[in-house]
């Protein structure tokens, strides 16, 4: 009987070794899987950040188109008169008293986009075909006047704040741009 028991014990040893190798392999696979998940998570995070940065850059580029559009509108309305006179009825002109300049935030743009009011006023910018962004703009007086900046033919420089809000189709990365516009007018600013 001793011979049978020894033979039985020898047969059990390889089974125990196979079990421990299998357990080690499962733990190693689990660690590899967790490592792959963390790597994949990092790649997704990097891709998402890059996508938002790229989209925000496209929004800023579209803001340049909106800036060109509003400059054309101001040029058409201005005709050497302050915008307070020549553009008072324009949907993009917000006539505020000097020093009461509006600093638009997300709530301002949301109200304005839903429907302009006397306090939250902006105009939608017609974007060229193929541009995936939408832009809104408003212009307000700064109250700053410089009689020497337009030193030709008795013109005076009147300065205006231009605000542009650009969003992509997904509305995840809005871009807000402020610019200063100098308009050369006859005389000075009229209120």
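^ Assign residues to that structure.
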């Amino acid at each position: 009987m001793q011979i049978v028991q020894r033979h039985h014990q020898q047969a059990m040893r390889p089974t125990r070794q196979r079990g421990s190798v299998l357990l080690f392999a499962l733990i190693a696979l689990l660690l590899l899987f967790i490592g792959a998940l963390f790597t994949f998570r990092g790649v997704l995070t990097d891709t998402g950040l890059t996508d938002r940065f790229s989209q925000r850059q496209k929004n800023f580029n579209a803001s340049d188109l909106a800036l060109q559009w509003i400059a054309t509108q101001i040029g058409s309305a201005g005709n050497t008169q302050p915008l307070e006179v020549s553009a008072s009825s324009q949907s993009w002109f917000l006539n505020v008293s000097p020093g009461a300049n509006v600093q638009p935030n997300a709530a301002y743009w949301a109200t304005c986009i839903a429907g302009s009011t006397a306090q939250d006023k902006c105009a939608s910018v017609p974007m060229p075909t193929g541009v995936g962004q939408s832009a809104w703009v408003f212009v307000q007086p700064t109250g700053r006047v410089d009689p020497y900046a337009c030193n030709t033919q008795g013109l005076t420089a009147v300065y205006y704040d231009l605000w542009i809000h650009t969003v992509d189709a997904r509305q995840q990365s809005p871009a807000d741009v402020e610019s200063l516009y100098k308009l050369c007018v006859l005389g000075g600013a009229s209120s």
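The radius of gyration is 33 Å.
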